[in-house]
């Protein structure tokens, strides 16, 4: 009887999820150190971090977004923004992004994680135009630290299509954020977005 009561209970909301355990690579590697197969498994999951590569430990940031790229499915050149410097963020804010209506495109993000495991990284995008607003949240995943950048492409096997039609053309304001499972915002930036004919 008790099993049926639990089965009928409403599920906890996804927003209440909290990643368990430690993000410290050293603590993770030293736990169960006597188990050879578990040690090898951890080394496989953590890659270079298992051998002590924690990225640039002199830089206090946990997440460094090296490059934000918008790739197109035609001859249109990619739009590339270097976001690991203030100058790169200022360039994006000043020049913005211009996309032709109906164009097929995808996002490619190159980023490094430093110091410890970054759990539950999400890419949040909010686009506004005269009272209309659209928000999207994309789970990127959990990543170990290391000097080599991770690359995330969305969508992986397909293309997004820019809106088309007179109602959708014009200027927007876009804001992107990278947030981890603890709710900490690692990077946030805004830029003008234009959908053209």
TrEMBL record:
Q: Where in the cell is it found?
A: Cytoplasm
The Gene Ontology CC terms held by the record are: cytosol; membrane
A GO BP annotation: Rho protein signal transduction
- Cite the entry's keywords alphabetically: Cytoplasm, GTPase activation
| Superkingdom field | Eukaryota
Record keywords: Nucleotide-binding included?
A: no
Q: Does the keyword Cytoplasm apply?
A: yes
GO molecular function, a single term:
GTPase activator activity
Q: Name one Pfam family in it.
A: Rho_GDI
Concerning its family, UniProt says: Belongs to the Rho GDI family.
The name this protein carries in UniProt is Rho GDP-dissociation inhibitor
Organism of origin is Aureococcus anophagefferens
